[in-house]
Amino acid sequence: MVTAPDLDSGLVNLTIPVRVKPSASRARVGGRHDGPYGPAVVIAVHAPAVDGRATEAARRALADALGVRPNAVSLKAGAASRDKLFAVNADGTADLIDRVTALRDAP
């Protein structure tokens, strides 16, 4: 569910399906989960699924993995679910689609 970049403005708007694994012993970004929003990037975080802490940790981990500022990533859907949609709005980074694909297809 990745949208095409707006090459005229240099702004990339992506919607990325994510599967969050809270309370993981090892934090990592990468892997594939076939969820309700389509093929999703798996993000394992140390934070528990309490009061949105795992969602916030996943948002920051995704931003770090994509090389964008954390405020460029926002939750679009799935606040109380392990399956989430994150929106990424970043300037001049058209290779984000390739990064998302690489993360999703990582073992």
Q: Any chance you could write out the topology, listing elements then pairs?
A:
Elements: E1 11-21, E2 28-35, E3 38-44, H1 53-66, E4 73-77, E5 83-91, H2 96-104
Parallel strand pairs: 1-3
Antiparallel strand pairs: 1-5, 2-3, 4-5
Computed over alpha carbons, the radius of gyration is 13 Å
The number of domains is 1
- Percent of sequence in beta strands: 35-45%
Q: What percentage of residues falls in helices of 4 or more residues?
A: 10-25%
The SSE string, one letter per element, is EEEHEEH
SS class: alpha+beta
What name does the CATH topology carry? Answer: Conserved Hypothetical Protein Mth637, Chain: A
**Unreliable residue stretches:** none
Please give the largest β-sheet: 5 strands, mixed
What integer is the average pLDDT? 88
The number of helical runs is: 2
Terminal Cα separation, in Å?
20 Å
CATH-assigned homologous superfamily: YggU-like
Q: What is the CATH-assigned architecture?
A: 2-Layer Sandwich
> What is the 3D shape?
globular
Briefly, what CATH class? Alpha Beta
Major β-sheet strand ordering: 2-3-1-5-4
> Could you tell me the number of beta strands?
5
What is the structure about, briefly put?
The chain has 107 residues and is α+β, with helices and mostly antiparallel strands. The chain has two helices and five strands; from the N terminus they run βββαββα. It is globular.
